[in-house]
Amino acid sequence: MKNIILIAPPAAGKGTQADMLCYKYNLVHISIGDLLREEIKKGSEIGHYLESQMKSGKLVKDKIIIDLLHNRLNENDCKKGFILDGFPRNLNQAEQLDKMNIKIDYVFYLDVEKEVLINRITGRVVCSSCGTVYNNLIETLKSKQENICDKCNSELIKRIDDNIETFENRYETYINETQPIIDFYRNKGILYDIKQLEKQEVFEEIVKILGDI
Length: 213
Ligand code: AMP
Hints:
This protein is α/β, with parallel strands linked by helices. It is built from 9 helices and 8 strands. Helix 1 packs across helix 9 and helix 2 packs across helix 3. The longest helix is centred in the last third of the chain and has 15 residues. The protein binds adenosine monophosphate. The site of adenosine monophosphate has 17 residues, from helix 2 and helix 3.
């Protein structure tokens, strides 16, 4: 059983890598963004707050995120090992995770330049049902049928925060709040820098490090 964290700027492809790695290693994919989007769909009171934070590219309050994660990690399937996609996003969250006494084995930092991210944001679409990510502007990441998910045939939609204005705020939040956790994990000796760009190359680089876990 191994527990893994993926750190990356917005639109770097952490969700896609998490899916591929979970499939290969039979791990559980925990996407905090997806958990928040599910909460928004329910139309609850807290959903309005979550939606406004997401739309403005700001982080959701730590207490809400920690509770959400804590509940998810207590579910039985997580015992087989998990990949955290989108957590931690700041130092306080990293410290709170330490306090949960859950061993993290590997942290992968996907280093992607801002210009590349902006190009990816423009074409990104996601499945409204299963969350699979596609990109209309990148040949290898297009769905087979326009606007239809290859996996479940549902409609592909644009995320509420995938636009240039929100991206600028998300990127700034990432630089100011999330980047400090890179050194936090580097100092623990469990951080691996992944400098590849293409989806398949990133995946292979990570698999080379993980081996047959
Ligand atoms: P993502 O799907 O990971 O790109 O996350 C989308 C948005 O959800 C972020 O821009 C934040 O508004 C919120 N979010 C996701 N993960 C976290 C987190 N760990 N802490 C606070 N807010 C988060």
